[in-house]
Structure formats: C-alpha cells, structure tokens
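$ ./design --mode recover --in tokens.txt
reading tokens...
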C-alpha cells in the first residue's frame, strides 16, 4: 500500500494480519460512536448514515482543503512538477472524494472479500459510498472521457494511525497510458498485433490475451518513463530497484523502491492494466500501463520535510518557505520552531519625495529584531487621491529557544516603530 510506510493492503501475504487487526479496530470504533446521527453533509451532498458509516467529523473536516491546489503548500509544488513532467497527458481533478463502491473497488476487479474493502481499512460514508482510498478509483472515469493518456491527482483516505509518517488523509497521483496496434512504439519494432490469437495462457509475466513481446515493450516503456520521472522529481541519480508486486487491477505488477537514508523505500505501484478492466470500459484494442504514487512520501524526501502532519499546517513559518517558489526550485525545508508565533502589524504613511524600498525596511526589522524575526512582508498598500502612500507590514516573531511573551516582543516592535518615525520620518497610521 502506497504512502503508508509499512502496511500493505493489496498484497496477499498480509491479508490475514490485517483482518485480525481490522476486527479489533472496528469493534473499538463502534463503541466510541462516530458523531453523525441521520445524515452527513459532504461538499454539496447529503448522505444517509447507516451501519456502514465509519467516517468521523474529524476526517470530514479535512475534505475540501485541497492542499495540492494551494499555492504555498509543497504538495502543490510537487503536483505542478508532476503536471509539467506529464505535460502531454490529460490532467484530471476530481474534487469530490466521495465515490461509489463500483469506482473504488468493482471496476478495478478488486474481489468482494478483499481486505481493502473492510471497514477497518476504508472510510465508508454509508453502505454505497466510500471516501476514495486511492486515485485508481478514477481510472474508469478518465477512460470514459475517452482519454488514452492521463494523470489524476487527488486526496485519498485510509483508516490509519496518525504519526510522523502516517495520516488518514494523503495524496496520490495516478498516471495511465494506452497503446494500440499502430502506436509508434510498437510499429517501429515491426509489431502490428497486441493480442494472442491462440494458446491463451496467463503466466507470471503476461496476461492470457497479450503477446509476450508486446508486454515486454510496454514494460520497458513504462519503466523508462517512471525512472526518469522519479529522477526528475528527486533531482538526483538516486538508486532504484523494481520489485514484483500484486495488484488486482494490473498484471504483471511492480513496485518501485528507492534507496534513501540507508533503507529501500517503496514509492509507487504500477503494472500492465488488466485487459478485463479495459474491456469493461468498452476498450478492446488497447494495452496499457498504470501507476499510482503517494505524494507526501515523495515531497518529504524532495524537500526534506520530517513530519507528514506539517502539510496540514497553516503556520506561515512553514508555508512561506514554499509560497513564492516555482515547481523546479530545489527547496530545502528549514525546521520551524515548536514555540508559537507572535504576529504584529505596523502601518504607516511613507515619507513623500523619498524613494521607498521595502527591502530596506525588511533589513531594518531583521537588524533590530535579530533571531526573533521569522518573517516580514507587506500585507497591504494603497495610495490616496492626494498621492499619499500607505504600507502595512506584518512582522512574525518567534524564537527557536523559548516561548516569547507579548511584552518582550512589544519592546522590540516599539523600537522598530521608533526607528522608522525618528530616522526615516514616516508617520504612523
Ligand atoms: N492504487 C494502488 C494503491 O493505492 C497503487 C497502484 C498500484 C496504482 C498499481 C496503479 C497501479 O495504477 O497500476 O496502493
């Protein structure tokens, strides 16, 4: 399972363990109650609550935050980098995370008794709807839009503990690409048929309908694309290895692992799309590959962010580090202090007939406030009819060592005010 560091819901081996754990979890959850009485409102819709409902007010409160669309969030920068890399692919956003069981499970050929369907692993809105547990839930929607190469990024939901590396809401990117008889990748190798006409046998390395030599080409196309993609996102020639895997919707399937901090870390799942899945979507003549990758884990490595919970913070000390960056900027996150910020604004009329440079003010503030200054920025500016100019600056104070008191910050703030009025002749508003 992607983005959840240790647990796997798809691989057969761990099913039993999860089933035992799941039983324990669901009993506990039932006892504690979920806080919704008759219906639950999510985005624009009301859903009746029933015995299957296990979403909580807490998880519902995170729906619609759309971190991957918010400038200033590293997940937005990463999403932009992904879109840039896959610029020839269609890009889809599905803002509503509520999907039916068909989308999340059935259309992906996930068996009825598969562990991922359990209440202990998935958030059920009610017996018919879940909060999508992966972006693969939208494969079918994109295929119905007649797309043959697409990328879809979305928030996904899985019941899990919350700690430095796990969160019940995280983000994934799905990429998908179809080929047909006339695709240049096949034609150029002298191949003009994708499917076996006789001896339909499924082996470890191919599905019954596919020709082995075609699968080999698509596998190599897919792996080359993905390796370059990951290298591009992580800016370095990071060691990688492909490991065989199992997913109900692809065969053969692989996971890609990268070597990071003395450990092999799994970062994505991929494979040759099950032909049955395509046929069910009315596509008979194509073969393709799909991949699903978790964004948080990648962003944590890319920007050296130590805790997954930081993506959810509104702390400007965190967000300001990513706010004005471009997706290709190599940003190294600087840890913010665990002590609270103190925010003071300062507004004044600029001196007339003097060229005013904001950077001079920033330097002055840092000069007086030293290490207590976390950020300074203009938050408002306007000019009156008479040509008088006003600026408002926000100064964020925070110490790495201790909790600051309002009084001590006030002393520094007053010093800044005094300096600009006495030396620079501004008039406080
Ligand atoms: N949906 C899988 C998960 O969340 C990831 C995945 C694996 C997506 C293989 C794919 C794929 O498209 O081909 O763990």
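writing sequence...
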């Amino acid at each position: 399972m992607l983005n959840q560091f240790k647990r796997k819901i798809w691989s057969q081996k761990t099913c039993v363990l999860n089933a035992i754990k799941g039983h324990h979890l669901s009993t506990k959850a039932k006892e504690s109650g979920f806080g919704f009485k008759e219906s639950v409102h999510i985005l624009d819709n009301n859903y009746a609550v029933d015995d299957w409902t296990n979403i909580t007010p807490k998880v519902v409160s995170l729906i619609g935050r759309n971190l991957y669309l918010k400038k200033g969030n590293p997940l937005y920068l990463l999403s932009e980098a992904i879109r840039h890399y896959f610029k020839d692919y269609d890009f889809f956003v599905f803002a509503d995370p509520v999907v039916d069981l068909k989308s999340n499970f059935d259309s992906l050929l996930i068996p009825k008794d598969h562990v991922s369907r359990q209440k202990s692993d998935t958030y059920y809105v009610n017996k018919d709807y879940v909060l999508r547990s992966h972006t693969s839930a939208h494969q079918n929607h994109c295929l119905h839009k007649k797309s043959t190469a697409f990328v879809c990024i979305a928030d996904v939901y899985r019941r899990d503990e919350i700690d430095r590396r796990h969160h019940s809401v995280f983000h994934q990117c799905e990429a998908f690409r179809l080929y047909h008889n006339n695709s240049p990748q096949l034609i150029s190798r002298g191949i003009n048929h994708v499917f076996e006409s006789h001896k339909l046998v499924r082996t470890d390395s191919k599905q019954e309908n596919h020709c082995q030599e075609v699968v080999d080409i698509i596998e190599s196309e897919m792996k080359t694309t993905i390796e370059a993609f990951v290298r591009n996102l992580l800016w370095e020639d990071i060691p990688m290895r492909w490991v065989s895997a199992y997913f109900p919707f692809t065969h053969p399937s692989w996971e890609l692992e990268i070597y990071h901090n003395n450990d092999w870390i799994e970062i994505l799942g991929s494979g040759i799309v099950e032909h049955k899945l395509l046929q069910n979507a009315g596509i008979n003549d194509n073969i393709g590959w799909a991949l699903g990758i978790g964004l948080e884990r990648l962003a944590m490595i890319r920007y050296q962010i130590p805790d997954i919970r930081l993506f959810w913070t509104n702390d400007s000390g965190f967000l300001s580090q990513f706010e004005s960056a471009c997706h290709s900027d190599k940003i190294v996150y600087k840890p913010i202090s665990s002590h609270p910020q103190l925010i003071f604004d300062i507004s004044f009329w600029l001196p007339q007939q003097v060229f005013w440079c904001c950077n001079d003010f920033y330097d002055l503030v840092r000069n007086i406030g030293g290490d207590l200054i976390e950020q300074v920025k203009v938050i408002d500016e306007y000019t009156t009819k008479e040509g008088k100019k006003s600026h408002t600056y926000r100064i964020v104070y925070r110490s790495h060592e201790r909790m600051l008191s309002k009084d001590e910050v006030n002393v520094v703030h007053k010093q800044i005010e005094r300096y600009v009025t006495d030396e620079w002749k501004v008039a406080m508003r």
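exit 0
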